User: What shape does this take?
Amino acid sequence: MLSAFISSLRTADLRRKILFTLGLVILYRVGASVPSPGVNYPNVQKCIEQVQGGDSAQIYSLITLFTGGALLKLSVFAVGVMPYITASIIVQLLTVVIPRFEQLRKEGQAGQNKMTQYTRYLAVALALLQATSIVALAANGGLLQGCTLDIISNSSIFTLVVIVLTLTAGACLVMWMGELVTERGVGNGMSLLIFSSIASRI
Assistant: This one.
């Protein structure tokens, strides 16, 4: 295994792809640790410690596992890859229902590019919806139940909108990074980002 990895690094093209992939994965993990503007990070840390020792510890541990801790921390990449994955599934299902999508699927690469564009638009809409739900939960104390500390420093409309836009932009950036890894790196980008989140918690 190690010898195969070392020999792959000796090939210039493969080495470039591996280093490119590792670079984007590292950037993804950094973004998963950077708190969104308007979030009281010290209080978030205290709340996470409280809920992980409570009755709902297993649920929060599962959420933390699949998001790499980004969701509960309300980091820039809190929304993660889920909107894109959900959008991909929805578009695939719509090819059976909508004739236009079925026709695009049969058009080859041009049709596939159009389908990918629709998937991106839907992913952005889902990311906005999910970000709004997460921020609403955080503002109402529902994200980290049992913690009385304020997760969001200022619950004004402006602050909440800024956090929602930050989380949505973060999800779009994650989607772009995943596609870059798929095109220019090694393996499926989205799968690697999910794996890196799980591996970081393990």
